Amino acid sequence: MRAVGYQRSLPYTDALALQDIEIPTPSCGDYDVLVRVRGIGLNPVDTKIRQRKEAAAGEYVVLGWDVAGTVVDCGSKVTGYQIGDEVWYAGAVNRDGCNAEYQSVDSRLISLRPKTLSAADAAAMPLTFLTAWELLFDRLELDEAAPNMLLVTGAAGGVGSALIQLAKALTNTTVIATASRDETRQWVKQLGADVIIDHHQALAPQLREHGITDVTHVASLTHTEQHFEQLVELLEPQGRLALIDDPQDPLPIGLMKQKSLSLHWEFMFTRSLFTTHDIAKQGEILAEVAQLVDTGAIQTTRFQHLGTISAETLRQAHGTLEAHSAIGKLVVDGYPD
Question: What is the mean pLDDT of residues 1-21?
Fold first, then answer.
């Protein structure tokens, strides 16, 4: 089958960083479905793995963990799905990715995709909406009825774009989004942010201008080490802070003690990586997200469609992601039939 892969970790500008290749079509394990990939979403995790992981001798690494596609085969223990089903998922980071014609994925991680979206627009959503859902409800334990005050730093990216929508659609939450450019401020406003502040300026004075002195929850999505002390200052006693990034410097977590604050890390691949007892929860979450899309409660976070998959196109996407200039999600179509 056709695919895009690489053997050595190289700068995205190098022609060998991502290459057009031919590799064998994967087979199905007992719980797997084989999916014909129709739409692909790009994520920062793609670039991080390309920079850190190299292939075994004679093999290739295939990236990509956001998919909308068609089931073409099922393993012996698969229930609830059949050939021809249109599905979406983020998959597992310890298996080959979706930058290929076909991908084999654990059926417990998937759901039927929204009927109202194209494959590419649907593929913009699984990884980031799973991350946002788990962050809000598994890590921050956001009470759906309580009048929460949620601060989201780096809110215009893929996860932030999902967080804003889920918080507004499913909870009684005031969402404070940080965004620094005119286009990112407009983006988060369109998605439902109630208050927008600039993360390049001191946060507390900006919030006071809106009559806000503290917040109940924080979702720190990027550059946590730069904002950590301010975030601790803004959280009310017994508040919760969750992050998804990899801080470059140790966090001074001792600052959290006096307020009895809690710190949570969210990594969307935990359930698939460790085959947790609740691995099927991700399929259940995606089914609920699909329903929210089809009822008009939330929308795709696709910001730019780059065309059909190719090594050249994906190198371009990796460059945008590494520059931290992406708004929402970048997507491509799968290979033509």
Answer: 97
